[in-house]
Amino acid sequence: MPRRITKVTGLKKNVMINLTSIQWQDNEQSRTELITRASLVKENGWDIISYEDTSATGFEGSVTTIKVDNSRNASITRKGTANSVLSLEIGRKHFCQYGTPYGNLQIGVYTHAIDNTIEKDGRLYLKYTLDLNSSYLSDNEIIMTVQDTH
What we know:
Elements: E1 13-25, E2 28-43, E3 46-52, E4 62-68, E5 73-80, E6 84-89, E7 93-100, E8 103-117, H1 118-121, E9 123-132, E10 135-148
Antiparallel strand pairs: 1-2, 1-10, 2-3, 3-4, 4-5, 5-6, 7-8, 8-9, 9-10
């Protein structure tokens, strides 16, 4: 059983994350799994998790930060060799910049689910749909477990 995350406010805490990213595109599923060290900060009602990407995620040389509130809003920011900011809000579509080696794209993000129970049981679940120029791109899920390293 995972070790419970103790409440930390404003202090950076070292944790281990197990991140599974699932993407559906043209009836095909791709799955990426990453187990890595991360930092967790609880600040003004937000859980903020930052980790270094690896070749497993396809974004080696970047740092990803996931910021999530009680289960209504979240953002996924990637900085480094890849740069992007995805804003997620239940029931709303946001238009976000997504950096690629070939230039920036404007991507639509429609959020279906945000379930943040990190403080209770170390889990985070995000589900959203991406489109490009209003054309369907993919359905995506992020399933994360966070474990205290102490």
